[in-house]
Amino acid sequence: AQSVTQPDIHITVSEGASLELRCNYSYGATPYLFWYVQSPGQGLQLLLKYFSGDTLVQGIKGFEAEFKRSQSSFNLRKPSVHWSDAAEYFCAVGPFRGQGGKLIFGQGTELSVKP
Amino acid sequence: DGGITQSPKYLFRKEGQNVTLSCEQNLNHDAMYWYRQDPGQGLRLIYYSQIVNDFQKGDIAEGYSVSREKKESFPLTVTSAQKNPTAFYLCASSKTTGNSYAGELFFGEGSRLTVL
Asked: Which positions in chain B touch A57 (Cβ < 8 Å)?
């Protein structure tokens, strides 16, 4: 069965420090992978996506992610975190043949930023 | 600007009442989705629709119903049969049609339902 695991429920980093959020997926075919960000009480905003090609993808707000097929991972990184990056981050995989464009989401990682 | 509008943003319901959450999109997307979000559980799919007058159950459809009479609209009804309806509900859309995937999901701002 398809699934997405985000091992870290909550991460705290200092402002200016580097960040890596982990995402592992289980999917039998070539996946499409996504990272979304959510501020409290808001909808989700797409940070970046991987469909094919270069395994290092750049997104908005200075984020990047690397697809590693051998590790079934799609970790999100940022070299220097800003206080405004505090939010919840979701990794997602999809779509699935015969099931339209639906995505399966991980449980989310809440990021706190210390001054 | 194109986007997805959900209403109301906050809704309170007494036990035993049905409530309907509205979702409208002007992105000309074919597919629409309803997800439920609970703390620590990520997003779980309730229903999705790839085309007008057709929809499919997601992973947690029990106690919910939907309709898709227009391409732009995909309302969700939370019925009294839903045992634990208090949650944050997110509507989304995408350009996909059938098995032809054309892009990511775009989300509305969400509706928070609280059962009193």
From this structure: none
